[in-house]
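Reopening this one. Same input as before:
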Amino acid sequence: MFTLAKNDKLLLVIVAFFTLLAPIILNPFPTESAMAQFNAGYPDLMQRFVIFGIFAVGFNILFGLTGYLSFGHAAFLGVGSYAAVWMFKLLSYNIVPAMILSVVIAGIFALIMGFICLRRSGIYFSILTLAFAQMSFAIAYSVLSNPSFNLTNGETGLQVYNDDPQYLKGDGPSTTHLFGLEMRETFTLDIGAWAFQFNVGYYICAIFLLVAFYIAIRIFRSPFGLMLKAIKTNQTRLNYTGLNSKPYTLFAFVISGMYAGLAGGLLASMDPLAGAERMQWTASGEVVLMTILGGAGTLVGPILGAGFIKYFENIFSKINDSVLHSWFSLLPDGLENAIVWVLHFFVGKGWHLTLGLLFMLVVIFLPGGLVDGGTRIYNWVRKPRNPEPAEEGAQASTDQ
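Same output, byte for byte:
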């Protein structure tokens, strides 16, 4: 499959299988059951799974392969969103020109930012990227919202209005689409007590994820990827061989920024609105957590980490006291109130506490992330429980 190795083919097929069947897999509980609160198979959340999966896969090319920790990748996410919305305003709601411009503009911005920041390494590089991202946020929030050349619309956010030119719109849909396929179009399949929603926008984003994942596999297995791994292992020793590693790290930075720009463009395709909040340092920190939690340097780890964090953010944050009381309503009042009082701090507005505890457990016991945990479970299952008696007999005959 496109010259991939056997294991890489299998990994791509597994990712494609779970991605395409996500509307069914993520809805394990009947619609009317109390556990339906944990279902995640609805369009908006599934789109965020795959979009932030793209974001994390791109970040992993820089951090996982090269070892350069960037705290400024949210800048490319925001730039991609702004570029996409401007395409919607000037041309049409077709997402193809928007995605192309998002990737190109993010790549150019990453080239400029990387050329400056990569003059330093380690913590100094991280601080420089953070400074650039915060400067970008401030510029988008204030400077570029000047009435004379309003590019970002400040705190209101950039959006599409009825009086925008949209020169290529014609008779096309008045919402984001891919050559007439509307991103918001959803089909519902009712099977007994289950209701599955199949959204066109999700599957378009899923195709982008699979293509991005395939490209990441090729980068990981290429000589270029091996060079990035060598830089991560010992860049100083590599430089002593006479090889200039700067072009490789800059190219990795640009590729990573282009991935982030694509993710930003897809976010804008979900809802044609771009705001400066997507460029804040918290968004950069979030993608770092996704990559580390899933497994930095692994192929599928960042996707798992992105899904894990977005699941907690959107599912656990919606569990309030009334939901908890409905779960434990069969218990005596005193015990019910006590349990709800304890769980209150871990769900709803306190979902960050639960995620923080889980992140600590993963970092302490699974340094390789969720992929490391899956690998350990797989090896434990395959490991033989009892040694074969024949081995002892063979050893005895050898001694004789």
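So the earlier flakiness isn't reproducible anymore. For the record, Confidence is low (pLDDT under 50) at residues 394-400.
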